[in-house]
Design a protein that fits this description.
Protein name: DUF3135 domain-containing protein
Pfam families: DUF3135
Strand content: under 5%
Organism: Enterovibrio norvegicus FF-454
Order of helices and strands: HHHH
Largest sheet: none
Number of helices: 4
Number of strands: 0
Helix content: 55-70%
Structural class: mainly alpha
Length: 112
Amino acid sequence: MKTMPSFDELKALAESDPQALDALRIEMSEEIIVSASDNMQPKLRAQMSHINRVIASGKNPNHVNALLMKELMRQFDRFSTAINDPAALTERNATVTTLHPKRNSETVAVEG
C-alpha cells in the first residue's frame, strides 16, 4: 500500500497541482477499499461515493472542508446514537398527508 505523504508534501501538491492531489486521494482510497473484506467493500464504496458528492458540491477548498466537517459531525452523531440508543436508529417518525384525487369538476360558462 502507498504511504501517505507528509503534510508539507500534501500542502505543496494542493497548491501546485490540485488534480494530482485529488487523484492521490482516489488512488489511496481505492487501495483501502480493495484491502477490506468482501463484505465491507460495498459499504466503503457507497461511503466513498457519498464523500465524492460532498466534495463535488463545494465551491472552493474551504467550503469543501466545511462540508466534510459537517458530514463527519453528522456521522459521529449517528455513531453516538448507535452506541447510546440503538433503538433510535430504527424508529421512524413521519407525517402522513392524505392526497385526495382530483374531484370531478363541472365546467361553468362565464359570460361577460
